[in-house]
């Protein structure tokens, strides 16, 4: 093969395979990177890995870092790394996670209202932090309000469309684990309070997965048990702590299936989210090309881990009829899928106001 042909083939492979990495705390400032789950203020982080495990202090020194390039198909979880070192390491990781959650519980005890911000797939922590800051600038917080900036491993593509597409399928499963194994632990710490969850893109799946067990694919559940010793069906359920939970979903990268019980366990019936969830607000944007998977045929773009709820008004009609707590908002003026563009839309403030949030 000539050098010219080799170069062309190599370039094509790079484009198709893409360069993607795990979303770890590395892009946060140094103090946060080393201890991303330190709870020290009314505004704190909650940072989990692909399995929903909370990063302990000095995680990189003890667990090592994931690869830096071509990583989209290589798992990285704290529990798997600890397991390779023996039972003492696994127990130590569990003890540290329990301490992190206890610190959060103490900080949340006297909160009036709790805001939880959840980014989507293909976002690193630094980018998500910037968007979280913008959201906070829109809100007139009251005394003793607490903001939790939730970070999860939605992977981060460093290349073009092909890279985004390749990480999508793995990120969908990670979003479910981040919710059921991570965010749910936080929700179970909170009692008799109002909780407002604001998500973007696949962050909607993180939120829904925290509220009730998500429809894992059978293959993903089996792989997670085999390679990470995490049984997705043994997760502690969301406790009825008499909270009032409101969910606001920007550009939700989900579909009807995300509200269903998985068909390999039972018939495809709707999931129950409990009485604590009192409102679901979401955006509909037919001009969001990412949600449409850059296709013009809804019957095609609604497949492959559907994302049609965020771009097709018809997709939510059955959901509205079943749940009765769902309201959609028109975001057709937004010509992008990016988090910051949805936040800039004036209807975002309207959504907040309709949830009883004072805006600036």
UniProtKB/TrEMBL annotation:
InterPro entries reported in the protein's UniProt record: AB_hydrolase_fold, DUF900_hydrolase
Keywords, in A-Z order: Hydrolase, Signal
Pfam family for this entry, one: DUF900
Keyword Repressor: no
Annotated PROSITE patterns: PROKAR_LIPOPROTEIN (PS51257)
Gene Ontology terms, MF aspect: hydrolase activity
Name of the featured protein: Alpha/beta hydrolase
Leader sequence residues: 1-20
Originating organism: Microbulbifer bruguierae
């Amino acid at each position: 093969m000539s050098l010219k042909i080799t170069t062309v083939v190599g370039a094509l492979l790079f484009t198709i395979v893409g360069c993607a990495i795990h979303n770890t705390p590395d892009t946060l400032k140094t103090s946060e990177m080393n201890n991303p789950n330190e709870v020290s203020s009314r505004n704190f982080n909650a940072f989990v890995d692909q399995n929903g495990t909370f990063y302990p202090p000095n995680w990189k020194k003890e667990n090592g870092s994931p690869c830096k390039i071509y990583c989209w198909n290589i798992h990285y979880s704290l529990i798997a790394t600890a397991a390779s070192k023996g039972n003492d390491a696994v127990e130590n990781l569990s003890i540290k996670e329990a301490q992190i959650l206890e610190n959060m519980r103490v900080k949340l005890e006297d909160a009036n209202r709790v805001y939880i911000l959840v980014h989507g797939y293909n976002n690193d922590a630094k980018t998500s932090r910037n968007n979280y800051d913008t959201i906070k600038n829109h809100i007139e917080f009251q005394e003793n309000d607490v903001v939790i900036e939730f970070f999860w491993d939605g992977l981060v593509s460093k290349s073009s469309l092909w890279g985004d597409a390749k990480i999508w399928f793995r990120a969908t499963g990670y979003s479910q684990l981040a919710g059921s194994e991570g965010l749910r632990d936080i929700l179970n710490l909170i009692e008799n309070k109002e909780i407002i969850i604001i998500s973007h893109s696949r962050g909607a799946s993180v939120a829904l997965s925290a509220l009730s067990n998500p429809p894992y694919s059978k293959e993903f559940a089996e792989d997670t048990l085999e390679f990470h010793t995490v049984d997705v069906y043994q997760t502690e359920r969301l406790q009825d702590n008499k909270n009032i939970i409101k969910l606001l979903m920007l550009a939700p990268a989900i579909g009807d299936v995300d509200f269903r019980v998985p068909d390999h366990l039972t018939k495809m019936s709707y999931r129950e989210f409990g009485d604590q969830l009192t409102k679901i607000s979401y955006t509909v944007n037919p001009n969001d090309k990412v949600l449409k998977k850059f296709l013009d045929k809804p019957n095609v773009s609604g497949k492959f881990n559907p994302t049609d709820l965020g771009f097709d008004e018809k997709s939510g009609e059955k959901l509205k009829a079943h749940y009765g707590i769902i309201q959609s908002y028109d975001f057709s003026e937004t010509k992008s899928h990016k988090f910051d563009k949805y936040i800039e839309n004036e209807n975002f403030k309207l959504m907040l106001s309709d949830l009883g949030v004072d805006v600036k």
